[in-house]
Amino acid sequence: MTLLDAWFPADMGWQTLLLVLAVAFAAGWVDAVVGGGGLLQLPALLLVPGLAPVQALATNKLASIFGTATSSLTFYRRVGPDLRTALPMAGLAMLASVGGAAVASSLPAEVFKPIIVLVLIAVATFVAVRPHLGAATALRFHGARHLLAACGLGVVIGFYDGVLGPGTGTFLVISLVSVIGYNFVAASATAKIVNYATNLGALLLFIPTGAVVWGLGLLLAVANMSGSYLGSRTAIAKGAGFVRTVFLVVVAALILKLGWDVWVETGSRIVGS
């Protein structure tokens, strides 16, 4: 890799750059509201000429960490998530994310994707048939049990983020709503802090390998931060009902995306055999 390649892909034109910047803004908005912005940003990066898949993954994490930092601060100032829960959960999630990334090469994604699709369908159905879920905070645990449940979720979802990744923020939100008992806005606020930590864990692994394309990543970070700021303010202003609606849309997109991946990968294996 040349020094220029470390800042911008050599074959990338202005039209492509403007497109991925627009996608990064939209991804920041979606991610701030309910998670799942990587559904937009990562596929866009994978289409950039001259950008290897590992560079796309690493550069996506660089942009995303700025976005999650922005939405975390905005939510903290306006919603005030409980840091006594969020910070331990985030710390364990980061460690689990590093562990997941370290073993990702020996755990192929195609093993997990069919299971995740089924889980997402169950989650979407669960939320759709319970319109009052997440409308108000009603904690299911207190004291040490509350912290233990939250940290357990952080470990499981952090490990998933390291191994595979798509929809991590979405899984955090629905877990915090359905297991812990937060409303959707409080869950989104806590999820941003945890998601920042998992992004940081993955990025700490990517930077020493030289996979981050810094120039492109920093430009995407500005766009992602702008979208994240607007998205977090929108979620706070519109409330839990709005976040619930966006959540269902994002989950449907995840089901379609991962379901298509499973279909293509299954077809490829059949043809190859």
Automatic annotation (TrEMBL):
Main localization, broad class: membrane
InterPro entries referenced in this protein's UniProt entry, alphabetically: TM_pro_TauE-like, TSUP
Range of residues in the leader sequence: none
UniProt subcellular location: Cell membrane
Keyword RNA-binding attributed: no
Coiled coil: none
Keyword NAD belongs to the record: no
Spans through the membrane: 56-75, 87-105, 111-129, 141-160, 172-191, 203-222, 242-260
Bilayer topology annotation: Multi-pass membrane protein
Keyword list, A-Z: Cell membrane, Membrane, Transmembrane, Transmembrane helix, Transport
UniProt record similarity statement: Belongs to the 4-toluene sulfonate uptake permease (TSUP) (TC 2.A.102) family.
Record protein name field: Probable membrane transporter protein
Organism encoding this protein: Tessaracoccus lacteus
